[in-house]
């Protein structure tokens, strides 16, 4: 996968993850172009489109579009399910996720994504294992907080 | 504002985000952001040391601002400080900031790398993972330099936690993609491959991406992965949907891993080991069977995951292209999807069938779906699906269905989306040309194309129709009639005017007999379009007019009138004005004969790769059309235009390959094993194709280092040709000087890079011959030809040939070849005419034994007198008539010019038609020249 973008129906970018080195200028240009293209598509259209020399796979969940750019030989359907699994992970973590959760806890959305995909490839596809890693980290942070407080006393 | 979620809340951050969301305008948002930036800046600069929490909060705010699309130019140092915090969330935010906003400030990279190094050696798996994520996210060269050697060790160490292994595998993959030179697997290779056997499915899932990428680059080193991948796949495919617990996704066992395994196998040919292959075929059959089973869930996720594996399996089946049974089953399965209610599946089925269409085993099976595909082209609501349908029609087209498919594509063009029209036009044009059985159909199709989608008909398309009409005289009359009719439409596309102008200018006479299309009617029709056309079209029309004057003298006055009017002869456009003036003058000064010569019908175009195909390839990028398809159409193209002009030369070359004896060959009989090709040469075929009569064509792939022997008696031709490159030669010699033009033609559509040529005179030759040249441009574009000029000076007589070494990169692979350049001593001959008496006098003078060289040899080629004469003239000597008492014999005389001396040479060739033998005698004023000429010539007859 080359990059993943989350944006709202209004075209506001909510999350961006780039797995190939690009300049900020290029990233902005790609984002603008792609958001426009995807938003212009009608609901019943297919979830794949050829874009530049890449394939774009996207799906809309409520008010958010999840959009991945993959290489030509990559599998479209499995990419669609990558998106779905990520949505499931967010949903499980936040408990019925909505766009606001992602806006206010954007850093968590990034952390969850990093546990699931790394370098643009699936790192761990088990929902349990990904959430376990995130929850462990949350727990660790609480313990550390607890410890420091203890020392501070 | 939502309730603060799990983990740590940062209240200040939430408040700030709320503020931003409440901003009514862009300006208000910028104002709020600037205020926050000023605040953060002052906090960072303040005297009071910030605690970790505040630092984290501010860094996080900066990150948020950056992600909103604003520039951030500070805070990096604070983020780096967070990396060394012992609090996990602070570290985590620090890493996130670095990952998103990395900047190649070298000072900073050093600090970041230090922090990463500490975390990697901390033995704390969560910290190690954070550090690995950061490397994978940034993936810069500096990081590769620092960690590329460390990470493989972490990946394969026995005591590494599974989660760390997963991160390490993908981290390494990212570094390998950025800096492959720094990631050396070497000793780790086998242990990495064995990760495919790991107990933990997550580890296998992560590792397989790395293994696939490494296998693509180093297939041999990683080939042991094939059998491991097959057995892993087999275990997954045969497992019950609950066996893999959380790795089962909507009742589909491990879909991601299955797809990756099937993808990995596509890096390799079918397994050689029968057992492994059998197991794999079983897996593929199971996958195909499962597609027919009723779904275990109605959820789209279930069918998507299942079909993702199915499509990947089909890709593998197509990649192997060796199991007809599986290919046909795949095709039937895709056929079912063509009518599926899910748009996604229809799209993918069309796409996948496109590749199936190119397999000989499934081409016919794909063709049975033609009606469904045509229907998709007409009724699909999504343009990208229609595009796939058009692609598939193009791929499944052959002679049997070309007329139907072209007709459907043409009718679709009338309503097609603008975005795909140009490509559709090219495809229709290619199919029409490739599968044309009768050319009137071809001409009709292209003219329809111009009528329907004139704006999208590129120059290549209409150039091509003209090339074909010019080269085929059976279609010229029809073409003239059809364009004439097409031009009668009140509004017709400018491209139609161009084609019409050109064709009527050449072949208008073929329809002039009909009073409805008499010369004047034709002219008036063309001229009625003139004023609506652009400058280039008008220029073309002016040329058509002058051709009319030649074809139809009765139109001369009318046309001269038109040329003479101010709007032509004083046109502000230089080109138009010049044409008007010149054509007017030409028509009034030149006699009918001169006019007829100047304005003669265009000669046939030399056959070359269809310009349209080149254009389509350019549009699609290299690799879009397979090489075989290209070659196919080239062959078809050749057929279309009545034979390629390259034929004789290549044939000549292969023939001489097959039958050129080695210089040391025995004189009599021993070589009788070699083919004797003495077919009589046709009357008209002199120099160029005398050799082409000989024998069956041998493959011309070998580097023909004696290829230059073909050039002893000629100066121009193709020196070398293979799949990639053609080298042509033109040369001219005067006295002891020569000039040789080398033409390097790139036969592919891909650029040759680092193209260098080097001409050298090995050993003693550098004392005899002086060759100078300039270096050529290092890039040769696809389809382009470049030229190199050699200046040659003969200092003294010589026997060897200069060497031409050519190096270039084609698609990454270095090509290197060395050829002998056909510079031979006879090139410096000056013919000398002399009478019989003089000849015999000089012959006697050159009577020392060393001065004479003689050979008796069997004829290798035709003994036809005319052919022999042509060869001897090509040699450069004067052919003397009435010298030898036996009129069957040939005698020649010449002087070889070198800088240091002149060498007089006399030659006598005595054919014996009955014995199919020759006796060749040379007498020269220098012994070495006699020897050399005799060697060279003995192989020419």
Spatial separation of the terminal alpha carbons of chain A: 49 Å
The multimeric state of the shown protein is heterodimer
Average pLDDT reading of chain A: 87
> Low-confidence spans of chain B: pLDDT under 50, at least 5 residues?
1-7, 621-705
| Head-to-tail CA distance between termini of chain B | 97 Å
| Strand residues, percent of chain A | 15-25%
Largest sheet of chain B: 6 strands, antiparallel
Strand order of the largest sheet of chain A: 2-1-5-4-3
Structural class of chain A: alpha+beta
- Biggest pleated-sheet summary of chain A: 5 strands, antiparallel
Query: How much helix is in the residues of chain B?
Result: 40-55%
Unreliable stretches of chain A, pLDDT < 50, 5 or more residues? 147-153
The coarse silhouette of chain B is extended
Outline of the structure:
The complex is a heterodimer of chains A (153) and B (941). With 153 residues, chain A is of the alpha+beta class. Chain A is 51% helix and 23% strand.
Describe this structure in words.
The complex is a heterodimer of chains A (153) and B (941). Chain A is an alpha+beta fold. Chain A is built from five helices and seven strands, in the order ββαβββαααββα. The longest helix of chain A is centred in the C-terminal third of the chain and has 26 residues, at 127-152. Helices cover 53% and strands 12% of the residues of chain B. Chain B has 40 helices and 16 strands. In chain B, α10 packs parallel to α12 (201-217). Chain B starts with 10 loop residues before the first helix and ends with a helix. The interface between A and B is large, with 61 and 73 residues. Chain A: Belongs to the adaptor complexes small subunit family. Chain A: One of its GO terms (molecular function) is clathrin adaptor activity.
Strand and helix map with partners:
The complex is a heterodimer of chains A (153) and B (941).
Chain A: E1 3-8, E2 13-18, H1 24-39, E3 48-51, E4 54-61, E5 64-70, H2 76-94, H3 99-104, H4 106-116, E6 117-118, E7 121-122, H5 127-152
Antiparallel strand pairs in A: 1-2, 1-5, 3-4, 4-5, 6-7
Chain B: H1 11-22, H2 26-45, H3 52-67, H4 76-83, H5 88-101, H6 106-120, H7 125-138, H8 141-147, H9 151-156, H10 162-178, H11 189-193, H12 201-217, H13 225-237, E1 248-249, E2 252-253, H14 255-265, H15 274-292, H16 300-320, H17 324-337, H18 343-356, H19 363-367, H20 370-379, H21 383-396, H22 402-413, H23 418-434, H24 439-453, H25 459-471, H26 473-487, H27 494-507, H28 519-530, H29 535-551, H30 556-564, H31 566-569, H32 574-589, H33 592-598, H34 611-620, H35 627-640, H36 647-659, E3 717-721, E4 725-734, E5 737-746, E6 752-760, H37 765-768, E7 769-773, E8 785-794, E9 803-810, E10 813-820, E11 829-831, H38 836-845, E12 852-858, H39 865-875, E13 878-880, E14 890-897, E15 902-912, E16 917-924, H40 927-937
Antiparallel strand pairs in B: 1-2, 3-4, 4-5, 5-8, 6-9, 7-8, 9-10, 11-14, 12-16, 13-14, 14-15, 15-16
Helix pairs in contact in B: 1-2, 1-3, 2-3, 3-4, 3-5, 4-5, 4-6, 5-7, 6-7, 7-10, 10-12, 12-14, 13-14, 13-15, 14-16, 15-16, 15-17, 16-18, 17-18, 18-21, 20-21, 22-23, 22-24, 23-24, 23-34, 24-26, 25-27, 26-27, 27-29, 28-29, 29-32, 30-32
